[in-house]
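User: My collaborator and I are trying to settle a disagreement about how two of our proteins should look. Neither of us wants to argue from intuition anymore, so we agreed to look at predicted structures for both before our next call. Could you fold the first one, then the second, and keep them clearly separated?

Assistant: That sounds like a sensible way to settle it. I'll keep them separate. The first protein:
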Amino acid sequence: MMYIEIGHRSIPVIWIAILLACFLTALIYRIVRKTSIHSWYWNGFLIYLITWKLSYILFNFKIFLKSPLSLLFFGGGSLGHILAIAILCVYLIIVSKKGTSTFSTSAPLEILLFFLLYETWIQYFINGILAFLIQLFLLAGIIVYYAMSVNRNKQIPFQVYVVIILLEFCLLSIFQPLLSIETITFTWIFIFISILAKKEEVTNP
């Protein structure tokens, strides 16, 4: 894991990429939609983050007892990530069952934007400026397409999402292993949310 120095602290670049992606996704949504991003987005982010951090206690209990402050600097690792994703999925099922009118149209897009923004910053921090610019070009094209769809009051077809994901995976295969924890997580979450969104469209046409 790569780190950058901020003051006297070494911060993992993954944490910085996640935070930047989280807030920039909300900003892009506000600019394009002229409204705030949905509450489930922020709630889901906090649920994942809190679960992942606290899972450190569960999977490293002896270390935590010896040094409680270690919780501030470490998370639950891969096992904590899996646990956090599982709890996040439970939360999303609850959200979808409440019949939120915008969930089916917004959920896949918000997740896709988050992942693409995350990968853009990861490319910058880890693989350099060329990878960053290529990723940024793809991201910019998607944002423009998204804005045009909103202006025309048209929903983005699910097939377009599939094409974007395939393009992103092709790009990732150039600069890093395709079967990474990030891509597997994204694929699972996106498919999971898409199934929930499609189910809601059928239930509440």
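The second protein, kept apart from the first:
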Amino acid sequence: MGDVRFGLSPLCELGLSLRAIHEPSRYPLQLPWLRQTQAARAGLDHEALRALIDDRLWTPDFLNPRPVSPLTRLDDELAVLSRIRTTTFHRDLEAVHGSVPAIFAGDPRAAVRRVVAALRGLWDAAFAPYWPRMRAVLEADIAYRGRQIAQSGLGVMLNGISSTVRFDGRVISVALRDPVDRTRRTDGQGVTLVPTVFTARASAPVGEAAPLILYPARGQGAMWERQQVTTSAALVGILGRVRAQLLTVLDEPASSTELAVRFGVTTSAAGQHLRALRAAGLVSSTRYGRSVLYLRSELGNALVPPAQGT
């Protein structure tokens, strides 16, 4: 447990999204994404994508790689998948379906290429236009969890990532829909925590992969909606409406990309407002990977009534 890390995995997001595509009624938070991408998904290789999920909504473990950092790129993950051992490819499919689906039963290298092409098609059609928005939510979640560890400890953080995850100080328990006991030791491997916008409860690979827990990211429900924030007339009079709203919500760190999505403005406009607030000493900033996270300063806290913090 001394080696708990966070990571982002575009390939994990692709794999988990198949559940929402296959069974949309069970994923109401993702319905706006499904509606917005319906036309773009029409020309995909649905036969191959459908063969990557079963009626239990299980997907093969090769769709849940362990990310090495919060900056993992899809191109890198697909390159690794394209080199997967054919024995591993078949084993992971059999673990889901009981046997290799017919469309993947021929030349295994050709089957792997078809899977990679189908996933690339799904990404280009339904993910690439929205990935900055999704990534902003995921990065904000990791920043929040890191702050939670610093303030309250690892146990509080782990017990707060999902209602189906429990940590008793020695063992992390993940309640999967499958009742089989799959106790694993983390010696030398640690545990990787991966937030996702395509799940309502925590899940984990069921094979022999390194310990990995996928959990629902905070804020995924509001990802497709413009945030409404109540601010005082006095604060609006001093700063203007948008800057007053930004300052109000920055009791937790957030990036300009995330805030632009939440408030329905462009990323450049959000960045301009945030830089103005920082120049006035009302917010502080720190770099996290490729993003700059902003947080209300003590001076900013003095301007925002406690009841308005979100």
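Some points you might bring to the call about the second protein. The mean pLDDT is 88. Strands lie at 4-6, 165-167, 172-174, 191-196, 212-216, 254-255, 283-288, 291-296.
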